[in-house]
Design goal:
Blueprint (H helix, E strand, L loop, with lengths): L11 H20 L7 H14 L3 E5 L4 H8 L7 E4 L6 H7 L4 E4 L11 H6 L5 E5 L10 H11 L2 E5 L7 E2 L2 E2 L6 E5 L13 E5 L2 H11 L3 E2 L2 E5 L10 H10 L3 H18 L5 E2 L15 E5 L2 H10 L29 H9 E4 L7 H19 L2
Parallel strand pairs: 2-3, 2-4, 4-5, 5-8
Antiparallel strand pairs: 1-9, 6-7, 8-9, 10-11, 12-13, 13-14
Helix pairs in contact: 1-8, 2-8, 3-4, 3-7, 9-12
Length: about 375
């Protein structure tokens, strides 16, 4: 009998395990007849803020979290925000939608996160913020980023969607910079069934601004007063209820991902691929994705898929290469580490329910791919 396929993600396993609780939570939210900014959202905000270790959590619809955080931090036309070109499209788009300009800095070739030295070279009199992305669950170099930001009077907006419960120097991401932005898009370590996200911060003024902005600019103390040009970005009660069911299990799921990463590290020992970096003391990685670097990446990806193993590339094209930004005429040669990563990274199956046997099978197939060359 052929081996069962191994998916890249497994959304069905947690859904089936939590199905009764999820359905009950959804029905309670629907039966409340308060479908926006109700008790589920308020409790989710309290629970998530406590989990991350921040004063404020502002729930919102998913793709809007980064944009909301930037607007609430006062970023707008004429400003520049330094960020990474090796990330999901919302990273640059969120900056552009504020009217500000994004400025790309290259990535650290080891961690795939923002190269702080290159970011420093990009600072101008118009720079107002740095937007690091904690990619694949590995924290950006927040100590260096915060030092640079404090030296130049800049805001720091953390992109945290792939790194829930990752820590840098013992502090959860999303609680280090001026604000953090999270997405609970299906496939992330905590998943809603639609777009949902949140902004985290310890800044009272930013939190108040974010709460107004997400609700069409409405003042929190007067429903008939609109204090800014805002958006309809409220998280609905169904999403909040579903997320609350999952939050108590997040630490357990994260531990399971870290165990799976350790199995990969053992199983791929001696295979000519580059494994994820080992975090220093006081740091931890959430492993939203388990991403290796591989020569002949596309051939390896095809080989894995032929053997029923899910895999994908995040990201095959940098943001400066996307058609929407072609008019900027950015030179890929200015970002050599990003260019190389686009050609070499490959994400392997990673989810809390993955078994040692499944990980070993993935490793065996990768090893066989490279050993077939040695026998030719």
């Amino acid at each position: 009998m052929a081996d069962e396929p191994i998916p890249l993600f497994n959304l069905q396993a947690p859904y089936q395990a939590l199905k009764p609780r999820l359905h009950q939570a959804v029905l309670e939210a629907l039966n409340s007849n308060q479908w926006l900014l109700g008790p589920q959202t308020a409790r989710f905000e309290e629970e998530f803020a406590q989990l991350i270790g921040v004063k404020h959590c502002i729930a919102c619809s998913g793709g809007g979290a980064l944009h909301l955080a930037l607007r609430a931090a006062g970023i707008g036309p004429g400003d520049e925000v330094i960020t990474t070109p090796f990330a999901f499209s919302t990273t640059a788009a969120s900056v552009a939608l504020t009217g500000a300009d994004f400025v790309f800095a290259d990535i650290d070739p080891r961690t795939y996160t923002l190269d702080v030295q290159d970011a420093e070279r990009k600072i101008t009199k118009n720079t107002k913020a740095i937007l690091p992305v904690h990619l694949y669950g590995y924290p950006a170099n927040m100590e260096a980023i915060m030092h640079l930001a404090n030296e130049h009077g800049l805001k720091v907006i953390e992109g945290c969607s792939q790194a829930i419960l990752s820590q840098a120097d013992g502090v959860c991401v999303g609680g280090i910079g001026t604000a953090g932005a999270f997405s609970f898009y299906p496939g992330n370590n905590v998943s809603a069934c639609a777009n949902a996200g949140c902004v985290t911060t310890n800044d009272d003024e930013l939190a108040a601004a974010a709460r107004a902005l997400r609700h069409c600019g409405r003042a929190t103390d007067d429903p008939n007063s609109y204090i800014c040009d805002g958006y309809p970005l409220c998280m609905d009660e169904v999403q909040a209820a579903m997320l609350r069911v999952q939050l108590p299990l997040l630490e357990q799921w994260t531990d399971a991902r870290r165990k799976a990463a350790a199995w990969y590290e053992e199983g791929l020992c001696g295979v000519p691929v580059t494994l994820p970096p080992t975090p220093p003391a006081g740091w931890s990685q959430a492993f939203s994705l388990y991403t290796i670097r591989a020569e002949r990446r596309d051939e390896l990806m095809a080989y894995l898929r032929q053997h029923g193993i899910g895999c994908a590339v995040y990201y095959p094209a940098a943001l400066y290469s996307q058609p929407v930004y072609a008019h900027l005429q950015l030179n890929p040669q200015d970002y050599p580490h990003t260019q190389q990563a686009c050609q070499e990274v490959l994400s392997l199956p990673m989810f809390p329910e993955i078994t040692p046997e499944q990980v070993q099978r993935v490793c065996d197939v990768i090893r066989a791919f490279y050993e077939q060359d040695a026998t030719v």
